[in-house]
Amino acid sequence: MDSRKLINELTGHVRRAVDDYGMIQAGDKVAVGVSGGKDSLLLLLCLKHLQSYYPKPFELEAITIELGFEGMDFAPVAQLCRDWDIPYTCLKTDIKEVVFDVRKESNPCSLCAKMRRGALNNAIREHGVNKLALGHHFDDAVETFMMSLLFEGRLSCFMPVTYLDRSGVTQIRPLIYLGEQKISNAARDLELPVVENPCPQDKASKRYEIKTMLKTMSADYPDMKTKVFGAMQRLPLKGWEMGKREE
To answer: What whole-number distance in Å separates Cα of residue 21 and Cα of residue 229?
Structure first.
């Protein structure tokens, strides 16, 4: 499949999610939180393509919160945004130093996520953004549901659309219909400048534990994740009710 056909296919999945959950309205200013990973870069590409023909005009920009890990070079991401004519902001922070060096957190993921959210919320307020697009995908949704079930004993997951009262910003997750493997393959085929995350907790989290479990179980039950995702929509979980699609 050539690049144009691949981008059209991927953007089709993104548009379906956007339509099913009313993620974008005319006049929205949408910022993609770009971590440098494959998910956020592919999301940025798809939203840029969607912007070119979507019947509800919206603005688009990209924002990176740089955590302070050595070896993470966002210059190629900045160049990509210039090539795609997308305004790009990269904010340097001392989050890594605070979490790992000063606080020496035994559970660093929670504090890191909280500090990242705070920095990102400050940035989008300064930029007048009203929609924040996050790179959570199909597998993330299933993993989050299973984490909630197994570790907390409740049925819960992040929502496709979440309004944040304090900031007045709405979070949207347009990749929920795209699986991680498809995203990985597309990022490779499209030669996106993925920035590897050197965080020492990357493969030591509860999420990684659940991801490994699901991978093992899927070998015997290949449609298991699809059934879990479908159950989330059919229940439906709070926020997962699909509105009427606009054709």
So the answer is: 15
List residues bridging with 149 in a β-sheet: none
Per residue in 132-178, pLDDT tens? 999 999 999 999 999 999 999 999 999 999 998 888 899 999 999 99
d(CA 119, CA 102): 18
Amino acid identity of residue 187, one-letter, is A
Question: Is 0.85 surpassed by the pTM of this model?
Answer: yes
Q: How far is CA 79 from CA 42, 63, 69, 160, in A?
A: 15, 14, 20, 30
101: CB partners within 8 A, 6+ apart: none
Q: Identify the structural domains of the chain with CATH numbers, from first to last.
A: 3-234 (3.40.50.620)
> How far apart (Å, rounded) are the C-alpha atoms in residues 213 and 143?
10
| First vs last C-alpha separation in the chain | 26
